[in-house]
Predict the 3D structure of the following.
Amino acid sequence: MKILSVSDRVENRLLIKAENCLPDKPDLVLACGDLPPEYLSDLRDFYAVPLFFVEGNHDLRHGKSPPIGCTNLHARLVTEQGLNIMGFSGSRWYNGGINQYTEPQMKKLVRSLWFRLLQHRNIDIIITHAPPRFIHDKEDPCHKGFKSFVPLIEKQKPTWFIHGHIHALFNEPAERISTFYETKVINSYGFFFFETKLVEE
């Protein structure tokens, strides 16, 4: 399964066939927030594959102008092409704006999916806007990660945990990735292309 993840920065080269900046056509696009709805719709149309997204703290227009043909994954768990994928929108609360959550609010959202999680033997991918606390996050109030994502990773052991929100430049793909327990945590800033294998249930 070939997957393109995107977040935080519009990459117009992804929408130009001649650029050929991906090694192959993706089977799925995952968007981790702070991207215009039109951009997500264009990615969905350009690659003609399903696109799932969560919203970031700067996604002010998605409510009135949601990306066409795309699926909001916030506080949901879905199965797509054999992959179990869940997602959570938003950043830590810092000024009361849209898609901001206190730690107790996010903990409640995570807990709301525990029954669904019990129905699945494995979670393949979790996508979020903010990172887990102390993994890729920063110390300012806006960019601290969520503590409640840490036990979620520990208990569910997803193969991939993909987030946005933390702007950084990377010289090598490996610089984006940290391993926590058995999970690869990826900063998807801009875009990241990867392949994953389906796990037999």
